Amino acid sequence: MTEETLTETLPPVRHWPAVDLAGTDFDPVLTDLMNEGPVTRVQLANGEGWAWLVTRYDDVRMVANDPRFGREAVMGKQVTRLAPHFIPDRGAVGFLDPPDHTRLRRSVAAAFTARGVERIRDKARAMLDELVDELLQDGPPADLTSAVLSPFPIAVICELMGVPAADRHSMHTWTQLILSSAHGKELSERAKREMSAYFRDLIALRENSAGEDVASLLGAAAGRQEVALEEAVGLAVLLQIGGEAVTNNSGQMFYLLLTRPELAARLRSDPGIRPKAIDELLRYIPHRNAVGLSRIALEDVEIHGVRVRAGDAVYVSYLAANRDPEVFRDPETIDVSRSPNPHVAFGCGPHYCPGGMLARLESGLLVDALLDRVPGLRLAVAPAQVPFRKGALIRGPAALPVTW
Known about the structure:
The structure is a single chain. The chain is an alpha+beta fold. The protein contains 16 helices and eleven strands. The protein has helices spanning 28-36, 57-65, 100-106, 109-112, 114-118, 121-138, 144-149, 151-161, 168-178, 185-205, 214-223, 229-259, 261-269, 274-284, 318-321, 356-373; strands spanning 13-15, 39-43, 51-54, 69-70, 142-143, 295-297, 301-303, 306-308, 313-316, 378-379, 401-403. The N and C termini lie far apart (60 Å).
């Protein structure tokens, strides 16, 4: 495309409110934006100005992988954003670009490899079995979220992080405050400071440890001066918070299974299709509200005939990319035999979620345990009566009333 054919007419700015959506309803504003064009402009509820939004699969992957779009340049800019407290901390891994981003993630990579995740499989399965034992002993009805779907990911991520069991409740409380806009900026920021102080102490204590948990790996890396202590703390906070996202994702997953009994019955009768089915559910689930973190164009870049100028904020929508009909045939249909399934539920590029393997492990263990051990599991209320979280950045049911 030549310089002359680039359009200089900017698309209109579309206000994108953070609507509390129920169930697995897809955001209607995002649907409209996807239909309006591959590159649109949005204004979110907080921050200042507007940002570009990219929704097509190939474009999302391009922006996420292209060094011409950086995260570090977001620092000091009042970019339009979803939450009032979603303000970047200098040095946080989510706002670093390579090579610093690569260096910091390398320090904990061993914990998130296939071997690192498999290291905790047996412990995770044992913790889950205990929770399901208690669920069955207490009998129906029950809230699947509070009984299993919330405590299980908390226990697993704390195990991987090296957080003692006695401190799990504090971690959960802090995370819920950080991940919600409903409590206001002050409480969210205080929770983040308290969690950071906790990890600062824990990482410092593990400086000479040879352990394989994340806190020990970060402590050792800080001791070798490969990472600064504040960098290690920021990464630990991000990983801990991200680990709890499985609660809401698995809540939506089981909401889907329990509102589509034919799908649950198929997974019960044919366990071999469960890995593919989980990947398809991860593709389909609208796991967050609006968008996550922005990038800044570091130079002028052309996307589909639109000039994105240096300094412009750019968002990608992984939710939209996962519904791109050019990549996923019948994207609104849950197809448990879909292959290939190159979804981007965990992102892509340098900022790909490091916990992807861990999330798949937890999802697989949950599906196996609950479908096999509680064969009569079903909703105890009508689907419309399942309450979903309000003001949450990551979507999911606040409770999942079940019986069997």
